[in-house]
Design goal:
Blueprint: E1 2-10, H1 14-32, E2 36-41, E3 47-54, H2 57-65, H3 68-71, E4 75-83
Antiparallel strand pairs: 1-3, 1-4, 2-3
Amino acid sequence: MARYVLQLAFDGDPRRLEARPAHREHLRALQAEGRLVTAGPWADDSGALHVYEVTDEAELRDILRTDPYTAVDGYEVVLLKEWTPLM
């Protein structure tokens, strides 16, 4: 398994807020499966940071394709990078 950090920037499209409940349910399911370590928005709601534990980047990209935010094009990926935490 590998850990990946995903940083998102949100746009002003109101459809993202409409998709937020489904997006958060999607994240809860991923956490229950052990594939999402943590996630949350910046305090100013300009974007978010997610940490995933997945097999590889291809699995993470599959996860992103099924995210309700993706369907409304509600974000831009700022950073998607494998991460090696020390602790």
